[in-house]
Amino acid sequence: MKLFLVGMTVAATLASAATAAAPAGSIEGRWSNPKGSVVVDVDRCGNSWCGTVVSASAKAKADAREGGTANLIGTRLMHGFVPDGRGGYKGKVFLPKRNMSAGGTIRVLSANTISVRGCAVAGVLCKEQNWRRVR
């Protein structure tokens, strides 16, 4: 009985350590904005993470063109994202409808949801969206 309890304690300790070491979720993968009009592939680019548009609706493409972004497909919407030391990531987001970059953050909410936030002026004029994993 004593050996069984020791074995259970070791197993519980190992399971706990594995759970603590495993990340809550990764920002790598394919993500869709809330409307489903844009899909971005987030992957490593050097020492950071970047997100490139891999598909977009006709309306999203037209809105981007009106803003000055001729080709939405292939455009990097997220770049230079690095861990912020608080469990999230910080970097830059590109706003194709405005043809401008802004400071941004990404937080993993679950394995299939991230929160993407961009602020045009240091914490002012911000927009936050929850993106869902599509692959």
List the topology elements.
Elements (H helix, E strand, L loop, with lengths): L1 H20 L7 E4 L5 E8 L2 E9 L1 H10 L8 E8 L5 E7 L4 E11 L2 E9 L2 E10 L2
Antiparallel strand pairs: 1-2, 1-8, 2-3, 3-4, 4-5, 5-6, 6-7, 7-8
Structure description:
- The model is unreliable at 1-24 (pLDDT under 50).
- The chain has an 8-stranded antiparallel beta barrel.
- It contains 2 helices and 8 strands.
- It starts with a helix and ends with a strand.
- The chain has a single domain (25-133), classed as Beta Barrel (Lipocalin), CATH 2.40.128.520.
- A hairpin with a 5-residue loop joins strand 4 (76-83) and strand 5 (89-95).
- With 135 residues, the chain is an alpha+beta fold.
Summarize the structure.
This protein has 135 residues and is of the alpha+beta class. The protein starts with a helix and ends with a strand.
Top keywords for this entry?
single chain, 135 residues, alpha+beta, Lipocalin, 8-stranded antiparallel β-barrel, 2 helices, 8 strands, 49% strand, disordered N terminus, DUF2147 domain-containing protein, DUF2147
Uncertain segments are 1-24
| Pattern of helices and strands | HEEEHEEEEE
Describe the global form. Answer: globular
By CATH reckoning, the class would read Mainly Beta
**Main sheet overview:** 8 strands, antiparallel, barrel
Strand content: over 45%
Q: Can you list the strand order of the major beta sheet?
A: 1-2-3-4-5-6-7-8
How many structural domains in the coordinates? 1
In whole angstroms, how far apart are the ends?
A: 46 Å
- Secondary-structure-based class equals alpha+beta
Organism: Sphingomonas rhizophila
Signal peptide: 1-20
InterPro entries: DUF2147
Keywords: Signal
